[in-house]
UniProtKB/TrEMBL annotation:
It comes from Ponticaulis profundi. This is Alkaline phosphatase PhoX. InterPro entries: PhoX. PROSITE patterns: PROKAR_LIPOPROTEIN. Residues 1-21 form the signal peptide. The keyword Signal applies. Keywords: Signal. The keyword Zinc does not apply.
């Protein structure tokens, strides 16, 4: 049974968050059940403009292309990446998009300060880091006001500056965006601070926020987060070939700046498990479930980039390039889905599901541990190639952005593990998709491409996609 719009909005609103953040996956199969093979897919129609190929009846609007001048006078940076939406209280026609930009310290010519030799004291004071020429580092986040009726951007500005390689992140139940630095770059002749942290951007901010790293959440190649509204626990992925999955237990729910405890995921009775299926194919099969335990880890600032190595030595499980992560509300409770870009025997990608236990994060959690399930393991590139950003959809499936060497697609994945196609990047650059998320009304799907560097708003008969 597919999620109805009524149940979708009721569930999301009861959590007090943006409706696009925590959709209801009502079509979920029973634990242990899985299916393989591609689902029926509507044929894509070639785009005469050479940008996006979409199914019949679907249209797109290209938005906020890199280099455009925003309302704050700064340029739209390149490398659009992770993204989310928030409703605007009292305004049913508009929503906010907060978007990452995955830029390096030496990308100033393509950043918000392109052509500038200095910035205002306010920008300098709010930036996390400044380069040797006195300019804030070019990555960070942009915030855009989107009109859902006209499908146009009405206002845009930089909301975080001075960071680098802001890749993905995640929404929080208290109305903010966690933006993650996918880097371990240390201070050098050009930059003054170490990087590799999570930063928080409140959706209520209508300008630049002061960039303050949440150091207690660890320093590693951060990719994405998912926050469980029931517990306030933040789950995190790491982009490395031998990555771990992390859990942050905050001292105060909803107040991450007050600190907390970092832990790593291990499989109960399988210390140092290798879930990648590279060297022992078939060890971890779709639909099987494994009990989880969480291990404390110290030295979380990791100046030697050894956090994952020490975590694995303690017993943590290995994953193949943990990237996209999202929370979905299911009939049986909340679930965390995450993508492992190069996982599986074919190295084409895996999607995992973590179901928190009834006593998650408490001293009693061993009596009802969280469970880990392999939902998808792609067997070839034509089925799904290198899954990256993911989001739960209003109709009960996952929407997945690809980041592979061949054609780039946006895929759908049913709760039973079947894969189908939603869009193709038709631009000659064939760059990755990123940042998939839905408008609060559930009618518009936003995605980014990193060639061209732009955001797209896609609309169409989603009910047909759901029945494909």
């Amino acid at each position: 049974m597919q999620a109805t719009r009524r149940s979708f909005f009721k569930t999301a609103m009861s959590l007090g968050v943006a409706s696009s953040a925590y959709p209801l996956l009502t079509a979920c199969s029973a634990e242990g059940e899985a299916a393989t093979g591609a689902a029926k897919t509507m044929d894509l129609q070639a785009d005469p403009n050479g940008l996006l190929d979409l199914p019949p009846g679907f249209t797109y609007t290209q938005l906020s292309v890199a280099g455009e001048v925003m309302d704050d006078g700064l340029h739209v940076p390149t490398s659009h990446d992770g993204m989310t939406t928030f409703p605007i209280e009292g305004d049913a026609d508009r929503c906010l998009l907060i978007r990452n930009h995955e830029m390096s310290a030496d990308d100033q010519d393509e950043g918000p300060f392109a052509g500038m030799t200095s910035v205002s004291d306010d920008i300098r004071d709010k930036a996390y880091d400044i380069d040797a020429n006195g300019l804030p580092l070019p990555a960070g986040t942009t915030t855009l006001v989107f009109n859902m009726k006209t499908q146009q951007i009405e206002k845009s500005w930089m909301s975080l500056v001075g960071t680098i390689r802001n890749c993905s992140g995640g929404i929080t139940p208290w109305g903010s965006w966690l933006t993650c630095e996918e880097t371990l770059q240390k201070a050098d002749d050009n930059i003054s601070k170490d990087h590799g942290y999570v930063f928080e951007v409140p959706s209520s901010a209508r300008g630049l926020v002061k960039a303050e790293p949440l150091k207690a959440m660890g320093r590693f190649n951060h990719e994405a987060t998912a926050t469980d509204p029931r517990t306030g626990i933040v789950y995190q992925t790491e982009d490395a070939h031998d990555s771990l999955i992390y859990r942050f237990l905050p001292e105060a729910k909803g107040e991450l700046h007050k600190g907390g405890r970092l832990q790593v995921l291990a499989l109960k009775d399988r210390p140092r498990a290798d879930t990648r299926n590279w060297y022992n194919p078939g060890t971890y099969r779709m639909g099987e479930r494994w009990a989880v335990e969480w291990l404390d880890i110290d030295g979380i600032d990791a100046p030697d980039n050894d956090l994952r190595l020490r975590g694995h030595a303690k017993g943590a499980a290995l994953f193949a390039r943990g990237e996209g992560m999202c929370l979905a509300v299911e009939k049986t409770g909340n679930a965390i889905y995450f993508a492992c870009t190069s996982g599986g025997e074919a190295e084409c990608g895996q999607i995992w599901k973590y179901t928190p236990g009834d006593f998650e994060g408490t001293s009693d959690e061993a009596s009802a541990p969280g469970m880990l399930t392999l939902v998808v393991e792609s067997t070839n590139a034509s089925e799904m190639e290198m899954c990256d950003n993911i989001v739960a959809s209003p109709w009960g499936d996952l929407v997945v952005c690809e980041d592979g060497p061949d054609d780039e697609f946006v895929r759908g994945v049913t709760p039973e593990g079947r894969i189908y196609t939603i869009a193709r990047n038709a631009h000659p650059d064939q760059a990755e998709f990123a940042g998939a998320c839905f408008a609060p009304d559930g009618e518009t799907l936003f995605v980014n491409t990193q060639g061209p560097h732009a955001t797209y708003a896609i609309r169409g008969p989603w009910a047909k996609i759901a029945r494909a």
